[in-house]
Amino acid sequence: MSRIELNLDRAELDTCVSCGLCLPDCPTYRVTGVDAASPRGRITLMRAVNDGGAPITEEFVEAMTSCVQCRGCETACPSGVPFGHLMEDTRTALAAGTAITPRWQRAAMAVLGHHRLLLAGSSLLAVAQRFRLVPSRRLGLPARLPIRRPTLQSSGDDVYLFTGCVMDAWQRDVHVATKKVIEATGAGVTPTGAGAACCGALHTHAGLTPTARKYALATIEAMPLDRPILVNSAGCGAALKDYGRLLDTPAAHEFVERVVDVSEWLAPRIDLLDLDATGLRVAIQDPCHLRHVQKAHLPVRTVLAALSADVVELDDEGLCCGAGGAYSVLEPELAGSIRARKLESIERAAPDIVASANPGCSIHLANAGVRVAHPMQIVAEALR
Ligand code: SF4
Ligand code: SF4
């Protein structure tokens, strides 16, 4: 393979002392038992290429692309290794050298920034799905894509609701529920729609950083003034909160301060809602980008507790479910093995329903037969 310079931050690489304390929290290590599929092994390989001039081999590429980018290792690491940044920078170099993210994947991801095209394409896909012309499971699609979507109209200008790309096309009903809950607190909501077509999270994961920067600039421009920006997708929220690093401009750093997960925003306002008690036993599945990246997974519990729900914790210490954005499509075997562990944990919790605040996780789990809903859907159902 041709020579590719990784240009990783030496100080970031040096924070890893190879202690291995992160290994039990790495989903790919847990299912393979292979060091090259662990955070420690991946960092060792990055160092060998970055500092030692080792060639980029197929094994190296496999070790990098098999990472779910869940960042469970960051939570576990006592040395504070910024693994997510190291992996993003590695993938940026690999994608620039065309060692990863083939053309078909780049073409598919290009559609995400064209909102109307994405909605129209999704509707066509939904029709094809009804005629069983689409291998939905293999493509990681929801079992029943919507052909039509409810409209989302602005109800005021207190807060923005970031609606994004795939989630808006496939899970508009979650946005409707989220908007209803926010409005029940008395706040007016501006859904972003086509104005902020895509946050660029999937592009960052795939190493397409220049495209992610382009989308980040457009997203910032679409949400002027100083209103809070509420996000109900953990992956999008993590991406929006990282624009300061991605763009490193004063506008980006200011923007980041306004971004908040919808449960973070709602938890201190939950007493404003008039809620019926629910008798549901709800297991909380923490999306990695809420728990390990945003560190904003606790407010979901406050919100659900207000419904008198029987909230149960899964016993896997927040291990990834294997969805990982496009990971479940690109690495179906590993994603399936990782999910199998999550399913065992859910089975032990025996819930009526699983609450998950990320579209990728909810689709991945629903495709395995789990009854799953966004926390805002559960709250919306309980509104009097
Ligand atoms: S990433 Fe952190 S926990 Fe894992 S081996 Fe390196 S220093 Fe240890
Ligand atoms: S990001 Fe997740 S999959 Fe990748 S090395 Fe860290 S714990 Fe493992």
Q: Could you describe the largest sheet, including whether it forms a barrel?
A: 4 strands, parallel
Distance between the termini: 62 Å
- How do the SSEs run, as a string of H and E? HHHHHHHHEHHEHHEHHHEHEHHEHHEHEH
Total individual domains: 3
Overall pLDDT, averaged?
A: 96
Model regions low in confidence, pLDDT < 50 over at least 5 residues? none
Helix content bin: 40-55%
Shape: globular
| Computed structural class | alpha/beta
> Strands of the largest sheet, in order across it?
2-1-3-4
Our Rg estimate from Cα atoms comes to: 20 Å
Q: What percentage of amino acids are in beta strands?
A: 5-15%
Number of helices: 22
Number of strands: 8
Give the names of the bound compounds.
iron/sulfur cluster
